[in-house]
């Protein structure tokens, strides 16, 4: 009987520990308030600025200054799309340069906001004639290349979540408009990336 008492006490203590479940230290993933500077970068998706079809993919990033609720900064992104027809293979690249202003609200680990960016998009379009080399074509008959700078603006919803220390997960997306050949062309853009806020 005396041997059963310590065994029963050990079993009861183990059962109580299991019933309570595992506990995580409150500072395991500590969130510390960030400063006025934030640098981010990630993957960018969207429609090409001037190409009427396709999906542009690339990289982008930016820097933001200021404190909640109003912030300002600058962003840049490079995206490209390639489409083919029976006559041509078209490669369309955009270099998007924006000055931004945003309004945001911080809540716990998260931050929610709206960002407006305005600036220009440098478009590079190259066309390669399908089977042109086999036909013996050269010069402009084989390949053409053009550059154009167009004014553009983006309106994006931005969500960021503190993951660990100064590191955040950032998601953004929304409509975009550019003035191409005198006409407004509507599209959209989205970005998924990480940010560093020391």
Which shape, going by the Cα principal axes?
elongated
**Main sheet specs:** 8 strands, antiparallel, barrel
Structural class: mainly beta
Q: Low-confidence parts lasting 5 or more residues at pLDDT below 50?
A: none
Overall mean confidence score, pLDDT: 85
CATH topology: Porin
Kindly estimate the percentage of residues that lie in beta strands according to DSSP: over 45%
Q: How much helical structure, as a percent, in the residues?
A: under 10%
Number of strands: 8
Within the largest sheet, what's the order of strands? 1-2-3-4-5-6-7-8
Describe what you observe in this structure:
The structure is a single chain. The protein is mainly beta and 198 residues long. It has a single domain (34-196), classed as Porin (Beta Barrel). It is built from one helix and eight strands; from the N terminus they run αββββββββ. The model has no long low-confidence stretch (mean pLDDT 85).
């Amino acid at each position: 009987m005396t041997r059963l008492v310590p065994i029963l006490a050990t079993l009861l203590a183990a059962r109580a520990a299991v019933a309570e479940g595992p506990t995580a230290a409150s500072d395991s993933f500590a969130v510390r308030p960030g400063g006025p500077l934030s640098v981010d970068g990630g993957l960018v998706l969207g429609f090409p600025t001037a190409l009427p079809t396709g999906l542009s993919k690339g990289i982008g990033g930016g820097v933001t200054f200021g404190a909640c609720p109003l912030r300002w900064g600058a962003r840049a992104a490079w995206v490209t799309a390639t489409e083919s027809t029976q006559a041509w293979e078209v490669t369309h690249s955009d270099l998007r340069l924006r000055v931004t202003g945003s309004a945001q609200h911080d809540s716990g680990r998260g931050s929610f906001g709206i960002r407006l960016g305005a600036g220009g998009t440098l478009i590079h379009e190259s066309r390669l004639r399908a089977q042109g080399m086999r036909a013996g074509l050269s010069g402009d008959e084989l390949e053409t290349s053009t550059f154009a700078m167009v004014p553009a603006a983006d309106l994006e919803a931005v969500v960021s979540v503190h993951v660990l220390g100064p590191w955040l997960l950032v998601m953004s997306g929304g409509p975009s408009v550019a003035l191409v050949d005198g006409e407004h062309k509507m599209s959209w853009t989205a970005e998924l990336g990480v940010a560093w806020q020391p």
